[in-house]
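Sample entry (511 residues):
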Amino acid sequence: MITVYVPGDSAARSVGADTIATHLVAGAAARGHDVRLVRNGSRGMLWLEPFVEVDVNGTRFGYGPVTSDDVDSLLDAGILEGAHHPLAHGTVDQIEWLARQQRVTFARVGVIDPLSVADYEAHGGLAGLRRALTLADEDVVAEVLASGLRGRGGAGFPAGIKWRTVLEAQSDQKYVCCNADEGDSGTFADRMLMEGDPFTLLEGMTIAGLSVGATQGYVYLRSEYPDAITRLNEAITIARTEGWLGNDVLGSGRVFDVEVREGAGSYVCGEETAMLESLEGRRGMVRPKPPVPALQGLFGKPTVINNVLTLASVPMVLADGASAYQSLGTGRSRGTQVFQLAGNIARGGIVETAFGVSLSELVNDFGAGTRSGRPVRAVQVGGPLGAYLRADALDVAMDYEALADAGAMLGHGGIVVFDDTVDMAQQARFAMEFCAVESCGKCTPCRIGSRRGVEVIDRVIAGVDREANLMLLDDLCTLMTDGSLCAMGGLTPLPVRSALRQWPEDFGGNS
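Predicted structure, serialized as tokens:
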């Protein structure tokens, strides 16, 4: 029987993957072929979706982007034997775009059946958890700390320090919370991992829970990701049946379970304390710190809070050892980062590689420049609150420290590209408007400052008392940076100031 892979990832489904899967199976049957259909995750080459793969004697051949009108010609050409076709890309593992990457967190995404226990274990799944169960709890935490793994949600705080704090805290109950409220524009890695390899996340959460003494985990997942919610709940049910979760994890006699909780669409719930408020049944509003969640988190108990990519990196750290993870990356940025290429870009998608790759390589090489074919003018890194970088400043290394030195931030690894038609004054205005809409309203600098920011930028653009309003805007940005309770208001000035500094002509100034 021939195995055919058609992604069940929501990005592929949005461009017709479900219809293609149906037509491929029916068309193959009509030609006397019996095929086994696997709805895998996406390989991350979103410009080629739907990307169909055929396994021929252990070698997978890829075709894309496939439309329903292409199915008959593909079958007639001999796709089930890996034959040539205008949509053919050859052996999938040898596609340069994939072969040049260093996939660790995404090693199984697009490769396996996301809900197949056999596939997961055959590709290294559970090796990390099994090793963790042979170690003392403090040794597991020490391994994560020694690996240099830092939070992939944006702040870059060392995961091992959080875990050690929770481990050492005295409490009758502890929790692990996975923040899957992926709200930054141009980011989709969390969703793709949960849809394409959900067991990896569950394994990472279980390692975290057992090592710090937690018995319950929660995945706070945005309601805008219905496919991820369904897939993760299915994976949890399977993991419980297999004994990976529940009252006797892999026969160890230890307890850890996971539940999914849906968010209601608030961007600020990506901030850890606002997420906790929402999990506890209240409006998602930021809490002052201290106390930190590692000591007083969910329901006042010590809580490990990491995002999806952080927890999904843990199984590899335990399976291969801290030194293997530490060998990747540069400086204090160790391991790999999952970069997400979006915006006006020819080849959007997922690129996972060790820290240190340049932004230029990601945008111009992996991304092949703009989709419009026009010159790149600006690139925003780190979500809607990240700084804009000019096209002539893309040689910066993609790691925490290098980006900070360049006045930018890594954030969740989102990269949004703009061509030379973009109005950077409008982009600065958008940052303030976004903050005004998404602010939880708890602190005045964010709630009121962002609204005044929109008004001041409008006056600057209109040329009304320009110099005075530019001074006012600068003072307002300083106030928001220094006085906001969380990063929502504190980082909003970053894109505003970067746009104003580098493209003054768009604000009516001199270039």
